[in-house]
Every structure is written in C-alpha cells, then in structure tokens.
Amino acid sequence: MKEYRKKKTKEISFPLGGIGSGCIGLAGNGMLKDWEIYGHPYKNTANAFSHIMVRAEKEGKVVDKRALHGDWTNAAIGGETKNVYRGNGGFGYGMGPYRGTLAGVPHFEDWVFKGEYPFAEIDFTDANFPGQVKLRAFNPFIPLNDKDSSLPAAFFEIEFINNSKEKIDYTAFFTLNNPLPYGTTKNEFHTEDKFSYISYECEGMDEKATIWGNLCLATDHSDISWQEYWYRGQWFDSLGAFWDDVSAGGKLHNRSYQSIAGNAKKPYMLNGEEPGTLAAHCELNPEDRKAVRFIISWYFPNCVNAWNPEKGKKEPTIWKNYYTKLINSSNECARYCIENWKRLYNDTQLFKDALFQTSLPSECMEAVSSNLSILKTATCLRLENGEFYGFEGSGLEEGICEGSCSHVWNYAYALPYLFPKLERSMRELDFKYNQREDGAMSFRLMLPLGRKRFDFRPCVDGQMGGVIKTWREYLLCGDRTWLEQQWNGVKKSIEYAWADTNEDKWDENQDGVMEGRQHHTMDMELFGPSGWLNGFYLAALLSGSKIASELGYKREEKKYLELFKKGKKWTDENLFNGEYYIQQIDLKDKSLLRRYDKILSIDGFTAEDAYWNEEKREIKYQIENGCATDQVIAQWHANLCDLGDIFDKEKVRSALRSIYKYNRVKCARNSFNAGRVYALDDESYVKVCGWPENARRPSVPLTYADEVFCGLEYQAAAHMIQEGMLEEGFDIVKKTRERFDGEKRNPWNEFECGSNYARSMASFSLIPSISGYKVNISRGYIGFDPSSKEVPFTVFFSMETGWGLYTLTESLLSLKLLYGNLQMCEFGLPKGVTPKEAKVSGKEMEYQLKKDRICFFSIVKLDAENELKVTIN
C-alpha cells in the first residue's frame, strides 16, 4: 500500500459507504469527517465528538489514553466558514479548530496512512503509549454484487499490538454522536447474541421528514462496556466528563437519560451534541495482538430534490433510497454487516488483490482504484428500484450538475465493467425519460422520475455516446432481449441527426458529417464539423449498424454503415491537417450563426448574442486549428467497444503524438490559464486544447481550453496505451496522480465541477486498454491482446457473469475466474501467439484455430474451480 505521512495526510478523506448510500470520510490523521449520510453531500463536517479513543492499563492503573488520530493538519485559526467542521457553538474562522474534532485532546504523535481502495489502514505510534495501534476501515466493494456493495455502513477494525514485555489491558472507545434534531434524540443500548449496539434514533418526528432516520454503532466483541449518553451539561462539561470516565480506568458506567422529545423549542436542525460510546476491552500478553470490530450504519430513507425543487408544488415529492429494499433500519444493517463480515471482507479483499495484480505502473493502479471511490460518495444515488443516478460531482451540501449528465458519464468506465446492471439502468432511464418522440435527448435526467424533461438542446457527444454505450452494455451482458428493448431509442437517437425537427441541423444532408450547431461537454456549441464531435457521430453510426445487425434490422444496418463509411472518408480527408484533427470553420463568417438566431443558447441569448465577438469580428468558443485533447476520443470508445477504426489508424497515432506535444504543460507557473485552476506552480498537466505556434488561437477560444480535466487526461493516456504509446500514456497518468499527493489534494477526490467528479472514472479504462480486452457474451467470446509486450503479464477483467485474472507468460495463457462464471466458445489470442494445447482443470479441450482465436468444439465452462490454461509457442 502507498504510504502517506504527516503533512501528506492533510487533505485525505477516504470515503466509507455504499453505492448510492452516502459515506463517512476517514481523514488522513484518523478523524471522521464529511458525514454525507443524509442523502446529499456534506463536505467538511464533523459529527460532534464522533471519534475513537484508546487506553492502556497495567495492573489496574491507566498508563496512557489518547484519541486515535494524529495532529491537526488544517488551519490552526479555524474554519474559514461555518461549513468547515461545523458543530454546535464555538467554531469558525478565528476560533481555532472545532473542539468537536477532539483536536485539543491528547493524540498520537506519529501516524502513517495507507490506502488501496477499498481498504484504508492507519498505523499509530506514540512514545507515551505502550504498544502499537492499527485502524483498518472499508465498505464492501464486490463487483457484480451491487446489493452488498450498497450497504449504508462503514466497517472499522482496531488492532492492538503489545510489543512490550508486560501484560497490558487495552480498551477501544468508539463514540458516535446522535446528529438528529435537538429535542428528538434517543440513544439506547442493546445486546443480542454476540451483537451489541447503541441505536441513535429520533422521537416525535414525522417519519416522512427528509431528515428522519437513525444510526447504529455496533460491535461483536464480547467484553464491552457502554455509555448511552455523555454527561449533559453546559460549556465544555460533556467532553470533560468523558475524559474523566476514561481516565478512571476499568469499564465505563452507563449513563442514561429520559427522552427529551417535545421538551425543546429549537427548530429541527442537524446540530445536536448527544454522543454515546461503546467500549471494547481486551487483555494482551507480551507479543500478543488483538483486533476489535465496529460498525457505523445509517438509515435516512427519504429522498427529495432539494437542489432543483419542483415548481408549483406545495410539498415536494419524496422517494425512498434503494437501501430501504435491503434493510429496514440501521440496526438491521449493522447486524447484517456483523454476521456477514467475514464473507464481505473476503470478497472485497479478493477483488482488491485481483485488481492490484494488473501489470500496470503503480500510478496507474492508484488512478484506477482511487476513482472507484466516486461510486461510494454522494455524487451517486440509487433510486427506489435500484436504478443508478449520478451528479457530475459533489458540492458542499448538494450535488453539482444534476441528471446523470450523459456527456460527462460518457467517460466513466468503472460502472459498466464492475456493476453492468447498474450501468444498463442508466441507458434504460435515459431512453424512457429523456428522449423526445422525435429522438432528441435531454442530457440531464430530472428527479423525481417522470418530471418534465430538462428543456435544453440535445448534446452531440452525450446523445451519440448513449448509442455507443448501448452497444458496449450488450457486449458485456449478452442479453438480446434487453438490446431489443433499447432498439427504438437507439434508432431515434441516431436518426435525429437528420430529422426535420432538429433545429440544430446536425447532419441535415445525411452525408455522415455533423455540420450544424453542436452542443457538447464543454458547455457551449461548435459550428461546423470537427474530428471530436463527428467522431462520436461515426462511432454511433457504426454501433447502430452492429446493433441493427444483431437484431436483424437489415435496412438500418446497411444505411448506418454506408453513412459511417461516407463520413469516415470525408473526415480523414478534410479534417486532418497533417498532424491532428481540427474543426472546419470560418470564424469571420457571422452568417453561420444567423440560421440559429431564434434558438436560445444556454444563457437565454440568441446564437449571435452568445457567440459573436463584435470587437474582434469573430465567432467565439470554437477550436478551429486547435489541437483538442478529445479530438479522437471516439476511437478510444471504439477500441474499448470493439467497433474497429473510426479514423485512419496512422492519423490517430499522429493526433495522439500531437496531443502529447502541444497540450502537455510541463510547469503550470509558466502557462496562462483564464479558467478554473486545477494545476498550480510546478505541477504538470494536459490542457483541454492547445494551439501550436503556427496555428492562431481564436480571440475567445473553446471554453475551458486552458484548464485540465483529469478525465480527459485519463482518456488520452489510455488511448495512447491502446495505440502502443505506453511511455507517453504512463507519463500523463504519473503527472496527474502527483497532483493528488495528500498534502495539496485528496488522492481519493479528483475534482472538476465539484468533488468526487464522475469523469475521472475514465481511469478505469487503463485496464482494458493495456490488456486489449474484448468480450461478446452473446457469442461466448473473450479475448486479450496486451499493448505491453512484457511477460509475465497479468490483468483483471470483468463482465456480467464474473470476474477474474488473465495471465500471459512465455509458454502459457491462463484465464481464471475468481467470482461468478463464464461460458466460453471462443478465446481471442494476442498477436503472434500460436496455441499448442488447451486444458480446463487438466482436461484437454478440442478446438480449431481461426485467425486470431481458438474456437472450441464444445462450450467451455469456467468458474473459481475450473481454470483455462493454454500452452503456447
């Protein structure tokens, strides 16, 4: 595991929670922060006094006790706003760190944070504390098992190591505050069959209220004590009394208060200070070690659209979080987690170990694994029936840029490979709720479901990307019935390009070239054809042709394929400038805008008002002769989705070399950036769009041109790796991850328009890109053709039915399922490899060799017990 020490832990917040279930952040120093468990983001929050404390005793006398965290690494003057480590009184800028973080309590002088998502570990040592303490934390992350991976819980294990020569009694005190509205809180201890817990509930509140819910703190340790409540007093009484209780040694004495529901007049706010503590005691002889386990679980079932409320409704529509289908309370969740801990841990560890066996540089695996955490943050929701929904990113208290935004989620390759059912639900919702009758697609899904569509023009990359992704989902699941159900949406999406109702006139003359007004992921529009957006159109046409072929729609198959071929030829001949693909436009031609004058832009202006720069007599926000990092992104998608060539292969490689040459900024301090600042000082990055010295930069260029998006860096790097440019691709990823070093930025929070930004999951494509992984479940085909020629080579793979490892040595190919199963008819081989013999669990399999694949005479069935091994020349 990569280690972070002292100052390098400053920005770390490691998300612990389920997919769409919210999360708690484990800070780099061991504190608990970012309590995003209420159905929305809640950055920089501390749930007052929630913490872990440890104590050591010898012969009945307390030797030492201290909070299980390291030094305070944030500003000593305190939070800049009330949102930073909010608590109940005495917080904010100029008042020092919020005392509810226990920054003012004795703590450990040395700590080392280690993280390989989904596991975090912190080692604590202090000269005054006898022995060592390890804190381990995780939440189940088990590809294909979306239910267990969506549990609203955080798993903690505290291990004591007695490296002294004397017997020591250790205690772990885990305190959880009841954050529910003041005047409603009720803490209650229960114990049942090796399962002990404190429930944190609210009384007297309408169960339909959006802040109604409950929490649970649980352990399966047998030797315990507890306090349902800390001392209720004024000023600093409660923490002082708790410190005295810990200092007294031995077991805690319970403190219980009657419910105060209905006695308080304060408004309902999540601001209470009502902690309760579970203590786990253990006796360790010299050189012994012992781990105690705790669960924090939560249950806030009621969801509402607070970020963009429905208009004209007195009461907002409430829907339930998906986890209400799995559990009925936080107590039930905690019990399930305790009872299934071993299986959940082992399956998660199995995945993590398999993932990290992939033959990629450490920075690449860091990028892949760290961004999986996005799925466990408040950026993502699961709707009532389990459908997946995502914001683009997370703000302080609400999601940013709603609607599973199609042109951003285009980049996110983790979900389709690891939880393909959830990714398919995004396609289903898109076609059901976002598509107009004429085929136009809204690129933001409005909640609650069934609400009026997002009423803005369709975007090319989002709409065409949806077609490409539909083909991808079919390759990974092989469900022909599902594909047939999406066909009408696919057909209408493609044919909207030339529909009479398309006011943006994308491909009005049906020549395979997007020439009209094209909205895109940079939040404005291009006028005229570009390699970037026309590539999406070409890839969608080819995907549509393949889908039509699969379903037997011959007319559409032929039509889309002919359009693709025509458009591909024109693009290669007219949009490649000798080095890279450009946009064809005359920036001085104002008439390009006038045909769209009646159609409002994103800010409500006419096209002329929004795009014409009267001072320079030039159209704004275009690329023209610029070198866009996304110019051949469609080929990246095509390679991953086994579509074939969208552009000329050599021209693609030239374009990638140009991106590396012109868009790579070696030192941010010497580079002008008018936009948002995501790279600083001596940091290196790849900007959105560059202009070589011989290519004039437009007066007002493409939006975000000077910025850096991690997701764009990853797609460009992965594409380079696909095309054999391994050194360049690895270098880009290395420089990206250097920016997220724990001191300046959180390694588990790549941000763009908000934290935990979805586009960064483009990093997962590094795995299929290095391995040349292709799959078509409907035909029983799986194949690999690694870009890396180093052996031995190992890579993680996944699809609808299972996941495992592929290994290539000089003499052997092996395919091992670790989870699930696979029925295979064909096995794709790397270039230059000739098979000699194929066996499954020692049994020889008959086959014939056809070009680049083995075709078995009978279905090969693989699972965790049956591995395919192919000896090769």
UniProtKB/TrEMBL annotation:
Leader sequence residues: none
Domain of life, per lineage: Bacteria
PROSITE patterns: PROKAR_LIPOPROTEIN
Glycosyl-hydrolase family 116 catalytic region domain segment(s): 461-766
Protein's UniProt name: Uncharacterized protein (DUF608 family)
Molecular function (Gene Ontology), one example: hydrolase activity, hydrolyzing O-glycosyl compounds
One GO-annotated biological process of the protein: carbohydrate metabolic process
Residue ranges constituting the Glycosyl-hydrolase family 116 N-terminal domain according to the UniProt record: 14-344
